[in-house]
Amino acid sequence: MSHCIFHRRCLKIALKNKTDILKPDIKQNSSCCHKNMNYTKQLSDKFLALCKSVTAKRPKAVIDHILQYGFVTTEELKKKYGYNHPPRAARDVRENGIPLITFRVIGSDGRKIAAYKFGNPDEARFRKLSGRTGLSKSLKERLIQKYGSKCFIYLEEVEQRDLQIDHRIPYEVGGEPQAEPDNFMLLSGSANRAKSWSCEHCENWITIRDKSVCLSCYWAYPENYSHIAMKQTRRIDLLWQGQEIITYEKLKTQAIQFEKQLPDLVKEILEEELKQMKDDY
Predict the structure, then answer these.
(1) Which pLDDT tens digit goes with each residue over 107-137?
(2) What is the mean predicted confidence (pLDDT) over 216-243?
(3) pLDDT tens-place string over residues 20-70
(4) Are 264 and 189 part of one and the same domain?
(5) Structural domain that includes position 202
(6) Rounded to the nearest 5°, which phi and psi values hold at 151?
(7) 184-187 vs 72-73, strand pairing mode
């Protein structure tokens, strides 16, 4: 079994909430030197009750691991639990009202990786229906009734069981809104991952935290936006289904023939069509 180089020092740092980075000579392995520590004794009954109230698989895995070992690394979330996007799992925990702190440890390959531990328990949101888990069932039904069983981003029909509910304005920026359909959106799994990655790398998420910026963003309102994660970008997600696939295959063949990327060819066709329309008028 591998062990931390400085056992006591590692334990002390892992439990200190205000520490952001573990020293480079501390190797990560939350299960090695924290396995026998009674971490839960340091947490209030109220906070533990909030942790135990989370039943969704992904955030529960993160919470249970931290309760047992003091922290969990992105490497462990990927290898042990199969979560290829650890920040999404951490975000799920935060959206359930449980504060997390991100810090750095040394991974098995010698590189610095992220790890998560509980933040200040006093900052926890002690509400029975806090975050995504409590809202999902009833709110999802209302969203489907209003908008249909489709992804708000890709506009494709999706099985109800595969749709995920998401805040239009990320909780980290806008806080917890009223449980009304207009404040949430339905996303396919791939759209949710794409939104999460883009939002988490946006300057507004990282430092600014201005709700008005999100209100005009594609990821919040794809039907009416002026930027994508603060970048002057526009996008259209096209989907060919059924008999339309024949058109797609023709476009693909043409793109190969002219040695062009398919999106570039589609843009050229649209530009030519718009030019023709202008000339006609």
Answers:
(1) 999 999 999 999 888 877 664 334 444 456 7
(2) 95
(3) 333 333 444 544 444 434 567 788 888 999 999 888 899 999 999 999 999
(4) no
(5) 131-215
(6) -75, 130
(7) unpaired
Q: How many residues does the chain have?
A: 281
Neighbours of 169 (CB within 10 A): 21
> For residue 70, what are the CA distances in angstroms to 33, 63, 119?
10, 10, 11
Same domain as 138, residue 111: no
Task: Tell me what the mean pLDDT of segment 229-254 comes to.
Answer: 95
3-state secondary structure the chain: CCCCCCHHHHHHHHHCCCCCECCCCCECCHHHHCCCCCHHHHCCHHHHHHHHCCCCHHHHHHHHHHHHHCCEEHHHHHHCCCCCCHHHHHHHHHHCCCCEEEEEEECCCCCEEEEEEECCHHHCCCCCCCHHHHHHHHHHHHHHHHHCCECCCCCCECCHHHCEEEECCCHHHHCCCCCCHHHEEEECHHHHHHHHHHHHCCHHHHHHCCHHHHHCECCCCCCCCCEECCECCCCCCCCCCCCHHHHHHHHHHHHHHCCCCHHHHHHHHHHHHHHHHHHHC
To the nearest whole number, what is the mean pLDDT of the chain? Answer: 83
Domain contains 228: no
Residue 229 lies in a domain: no
Q: Look at phi and psi of residue 167 and say left if phi exceeds 0, alpha if psi is from -120 to 50, else beta.
A: beta
Looking at the fold, whether 176 and 108 belong to one and the same domain comes out as no
Give per-residue pLDDT as tens, 167-204.
Answer: 999 988 988 888 899 999 999 989 998 998 899 889 99
